[in-house]
Amino acid sequence: MISLGGLGTQLGIKLFEATRDKQIDLVARDALSARQIAAFSERIGSIGSAKELIADTEVYTFVMRAFDLEDQIFGKALIRKTLESDISDSGALVNRLTDQNIKTMYKTLGFAPGGGGSANLADPDWQANMIDRFKERIVLNNAAEDNEGAGLALDFKAKASGINSWFDVLKDRDLGKFMRRALGVPDAVIGVDIDRQAEIFAQKFDIAKFKDPAEVDKLISRFAAVYDVIEGVGPQQSSPALTLMQGAVAAGQGGSYAIVTIDIPSIARTGYNAYR
């Protein structure tokens, strides 16, 4: 993978986007990922229930990784009960869990309540979309491991169009952190009642703008500047990733990039307040 380590948030985002296709290709070549993709392609169409999905370790692991639920892989009993529950019942397990990724997985797989099957799993187009989701999630998670700021921003960009309420944001740890930084909301707000948190964010930003790619990019730029100040992220002139990007520009690839160095101490002396 192409490392984003040692870069400021905005530059990390630019490097990721300039190399996204290459990184996705590298995921497909990785031995473990390639084996899981092959197992998924070969067997997902014959799986007839959530019980059968859980029983097939390779396919189940693929699905969990695709929905960024790798840390919950061992909770097989909970996942099975969730996938077999009835989302139309307000008291169903799928509606009681706070992790939005589980609900997204539930809806995407589409198993019938009570242990039935899903017509989605045998659809070639659905399968292709799942493989794309899997590879995209792997590269996003790798980016976040190298560069937290860039990872938060890229995750937000991937999810923004599907956000319909502030509760969608507040139930997602990474989205919540992104928005707090972007809007200058102190982390202490986490201790406030969730309804009040939603009101605070609604007063600061029109959530309908998440559907506008231009507004999403503006918010990401705002986040990058604030995040780097708060977290003390500075430019690394000797970074191999920076050298790679400069080489791409010189060769006429990947657009044009301007490296800007901000004097953080100077900003501090002016009385800058990231939470203003």
UniProtKB/TrEMBL annotation:
Q: Which Pfam families match?
A: DUF1217 (PF06748)
This protein is called Uncharacterized protein
What organism, scientifically named, is this protein from?
Answer: Loktanella atrilutea
